[in-house]
Amino acid sequence: MRLFLLLAVVTVAIAEDTYVIITPTDIRPGVALSINVNILKASSDVTVQAQLTRSTDKVPIGTAHGTFQQGTPKLLEVQVPDNLHSGSYEIEVTGSGGLVFTNKTGLSYQSKGISIFIQTDKAMYKPGQTVHFRAFAMYPNLTVIDSPMDIEIYDPNTNKIKQWLQVRDASGVLTNFMIMDTQPVLGDWKIKIITHGRSEEKVFTVAHYVLPKFEVSIEVPAFGLASDTTLQGTVKATYTYGKPVKGTVKLRAKLDYWYRPWQYNGSEPMVELSLNLDGESKFTLPLSNFMVNTRNYITSGRSLKIEANVTESLTHITLSGKDSVKFYSHAEKIEFLQSNPNTFKPGLPYTAYMRVARQDDTPVMGAKSSVVVHTTVTYQLPEPTTTPKYYYPQSRTYTIKDRTFTVPDSGVVPIQVDIPDNATSISLRATYGTLSSYKTLSKSYSPSESYIQLFLRSSHLKAGSGANFEIQSTQAVTSLVYQVLSRGVIVGAGTVNGGNKKTVPFSISVNSKMAPNARIVVYYVRTDGEIVTDSISFDVEGVFNNQVSISFDKTKAQPGDAVNVQVTADPMSVVNLLAVDQSVLLLKSGNDITQSQVVEELKSYDTKHKSISPFFFGGGGIGIAARKRRMIWWPYPTYYGGSDASQIFSNAGVKVLTDATVYHHKQIMNSCPFCDGMGFSGMFGTATGTGTSGAIIRPPSNNGQSELQTVKQTRSVFPETWLWCNKTVRSDGHVTISTTVPDTITSWVASAFAVNKVSGLGIASTSAKIEAFKPFFVSLNLPYSVVRGEQVVLQANVFNYLTSDTDVLVTLEKNDDFRSIVVASDGTTSYVSQTQTDNIHVKAGEAKSVYFPIVPAELGQISLTVKAQSVMAADAVKRQLLVEPEGVPKEYNTPILLNLNKGAAVHKTVPVSLPQSVVAGSQHVRVSVIGDLMGPTVNNLDKLLRMPTGCGEQTMLGLAPDVFVANYLTSTHQLSSDIEEKAINYMEKGYQRELTFQHKDGSFSAFGDRDKSGSMWLSAFVIKTFHQAKKHIFIDDKTLVRTIEWMLTKQKSDGSFPEPGRVIHKDMQGGSASGPGLTAFVLIALEENNDLKGNIQEKLQNAAMKARSYLEQQISTITDDYALAIASYALALSRSSDAATVFTKLNSDAIVKDGMKHWHKAQTTTSSHHHYWSPPHKQSNPIDIEMSSYALLVYAHNKAFADGLSVMKWLTTQRNSNGGFASTQDTVLALQSLSEFAAMVYSNNFDLQVSVTAGNFTKQFQVNPTNALILQVAELSSIPTEVTIDATGHGMALVEVSVFFNVEQEISEPTFEVTVTLETDTLNSMKVKTCTRWLLTGASGMAVQEIGIPTGFDADVESIGQVAGLKKIEQENRKVIIYFDEITTTPLCVTMESIRTGLVAKTQPSAVRVYDYYQPDNQVTKFYQSHVLKNSSVCDVCPDCGGCP
């Protein structure tokens, strides 16, 4: 039992009543602290000083002082520094002169003194797109801060991908961008902005997507009743340009959640409907479907989720829309609004506001019931004359006669409550029919029984208007003081003449500083020193002084039209514009900065941290979106109130320094052994709730021959983001941006925000919209690519939104790059180069397709232009179609290093040959000349290797060579800004992509989390390359440290590093997943990272020392040249005394021929007796290139130019036509060694004349320092048998003769065997089965299988299923790429299905190629062809084509 004693305690025993000082409770960095000083009594002027100090050491933070007169309150502002750190602070106020006093109080530190906003041009991006973003910071007064920012971008795995440090813009708005890699980590990325000790993040999504061209919406009732038997609604589908969609609908309705009942074996209850749609389709759902085992699952509080999938008739594209309906027992609800004070003040009237509304918060229309209010009063019994030892003041209750109220149209019922004098609490119960709601009020306390009640008598307050208030008092007042707080500071203060009255009206001027929400605190001081106070909060419109608007000079325009974007803002503001395709917003929004976002942010500065919504729905409240929607019209203020003056001030978010009395009513509790059952209802606290008859309701959170129109413009430009720019507003407050509407048929949505040095931030309240639309237009559906000789049907769709039906002439313009297929009436087919036309009749508001069959005749990109013309309108669209040659592409390259440093002329002859099975027209020869050894790499950074890069090691090819190029060009003073930008771009993309292969423990592996363990080899390769890239791009040291720590945990006691992961590169990792080669490779990576700081440094150095000792001990036993090559370089880097010994041993195995030196490792070959074609110049094995590269790196490290020159010459002869080599590791190492060595031999004193002769073809090239990095190229007009090169002058240059061709059969000796079987072969689908086995001993290394897909078909990769050793599947153009750990001598079979998606006949054979990634010469190519498709005709795949029977 407990005893509760209520005692009235006066907190100040002796009050002088001479001053009252009010300050906000919070202090924030950079936000001035405003103090309202009111001198009550003084003999003369008073000098007041306010000093902000740190409580712990009394260090002054800020000071302000001013002179004050009795009876004239004024504000004093203490400036707070931006760099204020977290801690305990206090404000001390002293008075001198006419009044001497000192007082102080503690303040709450709030770290937030600024707000940061981030805008991206879109919320979702495709891989390879550019992310544009803007960022700025502002103070709560909307002043934009011009200060440096740090920018960080993170991928979904929290890897920091990029950063910019201490960047700024004069306007305060920072604009930047990042180019996404083509294979980044998919998911939610984030941009993080850091400034002034604060940070903010913006999330954007990276995903594969197709822009939706129409929007699907479902219209259903706002709510349903549990007693309903059906639910009716409408599905609507509209193109982004506003026109209706025709198609079909599949509708499904399910419960929001479903738990299968006991002993119920049926399926989940749902409703599924199929409907036809012409813009919209109405539906009726039978709710009886949700009756299971006699139980109805449509009950109060449950929801139905409805999804509509709309398939467009023309293209068969399907998009979906979703909605839900919540069900209730009653259509209406009743509630007390939370704006009601929770306390009453004796002697003053109390008005409670009750609202009756429908469940969707709309007013109840038509006849209404009345609201009946039942009032229960609790009062305290008089204290007995003799008080027993254990006594508690006892209470009793009684009821007041019920009152009935009529419900107005607004639904809000004001209820005047008569408060009896003896009441200590009041319980209100309001009923509306069977519905009820409750409100309990507690008493306010004052030792003198003096109270004031503040009322707001104005509604819809806006900046620039006035606000009318009224004070009602229990006693006549002569003068009152008010202060207005907003955004955490006092923004206004003044006095009110009470006129010795009990009712005092007064008004204040409302300004933008009070928006979006303000709180007014009013008080007066009685003659006995007691402060009597009240406070209310109210919303104010007009946050922004800088008024911004944006509009187009027209609401509709045709693609290609000139339009003006008109923006208004304060003069000299910098306006930032964004305009995107509405389809982008349908996909995902949330990227823009809006007024509502800023308003919500400003509210977070309130010193009253727990905001109260005007509405309260018992048991959960209302969502933010709903509150925003209603706060504009809500006419009533929010009362924070309190049971005494101290609580009122506290609830208002202020602190009071005074020698007057701030009454605090205390409640003391003691044990009470006999208090049960004494009737304490309503004595403590407040409660709100709603209910209904014993059950709880959970509320909702050419006709004629007129001349055809001509086409004025052919559409060919289709961006997703149209405008992303900023402009300065003229002195008249206007700026106009003249631009051209893009070619997309859609609606464009534009927004704008502006910043101004004086008036601060402004945001356009509404976006501008322009409909880029033609009432008559044509679109063209194309496959990605076709093969020469195939018959492809082009589908042209004509849309007619004119007011009447029209006859249309549709034309496919003639182009010598393709032949038109003409089907005669007798079924015969001819192929002619001519314009194709077709006449169709298109009804108003509909669309119709026209089909044009063609046969591409030329290779490469061919242009297709389709026109649609009627007598009323015309349109044309131009698209590109890629035509590829038959067969598979092959190439070989013959590099010639011209060394004229000794002045003698050079004459070289390069033989050219082709296999007999070459595809006619696919062959061509290219001769290139460049004056720099690294030139081919510089010019081909994006295509060094003609292989996929779908695993972790291959991906590094997008990063490492760029590092070497940038280092080389920097050291030779040739790094231009455009090359630097290109290299950095590729490095950043490589960094992004590589992080997709990182494990959670920090390690890397070929396929990331698909692998059971990280790879020691790949992890070492990654940290080595990442560290080398740090000079040029941001690499997060945390990423490096995590990986190194994982590697160090695997090191053995003898210093060696084992391979816990898959053995991918067998020569490197060793067949037993260990050995000196791998340890040497790891040591190289550790030496690269020996400058890392922190705890990792010592651990790294110790591990490197142990690895070096291990290698030194293994020297005598190493016989493999590959291991010797790596060990030579590793020991040289680690400054081992044995480095020279190892390198001498390696040199003894070198092959020296024709002035060139290299190393060779014998390879196992098959025993085939078949004679295969071989090019005149064949690239060496990747392993030979790797070994020779390590040797050249040692020469470069030792600065041994003369000795290394012969190795450099050999390496330059091994390049492919793109400046790379055979595979990835050899490309990386060769480029690293060449770049380091070439930097030593570089000279800008050279001048060569190179003459190239091939038959009748002759070309002269001049090579000098001005064009050293320019790749000079000549395409030979015919295929010669040889190319002759003559050079004179002095210096060095590189000439390459590259031969390209396609073949339709295997031309190289295979090391794999593959069989291809068509298990299903129909006109519209096929199933292909491939079985592959390794022909040599053991197993291959990591293997890649590429399965070509016939034109007009798409692969169903999910049909492949689970296959042993399969690690990853990718799709690229018209092939599926499958990665395997290895392929053994046991056949490995894969089955895959494909389905028709395009109209293509006479399809050409498709290739299946299998190869070892690290030994690409170990390969096989096999072709397959569908007999059905081979013999198909245009009319088979397109019965609607002209001339088809």
TrEMBL record:
Q: Which GO terms describe its cellular component?
A: extracellular space; plasma membrane; side of membrane
Segment forming the signal sequence? 1-15
Record InterPro entries: A-macroglobulin_rcpt-bd, A-macroglobulin_rcpt-bd_sf, A2M/Complement_sys, A2M_N_BRD, A2M_TED, Alpha-macroglob_thiol-ester_cl, Alpha-macroglobulin_TED, Ig-like_fold
Q: Which Gene3D superfamilies match?
A: 1.50.10.20, 2.20.130.20, 2.60.120.1540, 2.60.40.1930, 2.60.40.1940, 2.60.40.2950, 6.20.50.160, Alpha-macroglobulin, receptor-binding domain
Which parts of the sequence belong to the Alpha-2-macroglobulin domain?
A: 721-812
Domain Alpha-macroglobulin receptor-binding stretches? 1340-1424
UniProt keywords (A-Z) are: Cell membrane, Disulfide bond, Glycoprotein, GPI-anchor, Lipoprotein, Membrane, Protease inhibitor, Serine protease inhibitor, Signal, Thioester bond
* Classification via SUPFAM superfamilies: Alpha-macroglobulin receptor domain (SSF49410), E set domains (SSF81296), Terpenoid cyclases/Protein prenyltransferases (SSF48239)
Domain Alpha-2-macroglobulin bait region per the UniProt entry, residue ranges: 452-587
> Where is this chain primarily localised?
membrane
Keyword Membrane appears in the UniProt entry = yes
Gene Ontology molecular functions: serine-type endopeptidase inhibitor activity
- Membrane topology of this protein: Lipid-anchor; GPI-anchor
Q: How does it assemble?
A: Heterodimer; disulfide-linked. Interacts with TGFB1 and TGFBR1. Forms a heteromeric complex with TGFBR1, TGFBR2 and TGFBR3 in a ligand-independent manner.
Q: Which family does it belong to?
A: Belongs to the protease inhibitor I39 (alpha-2-macroglobulin) family.
Name it: CD109 antigen
Question: Which taxonomic lineage is given here?
Answer: Eukaryota, Metazoa, Spiralia, Lophotrochozoa, Mollusca
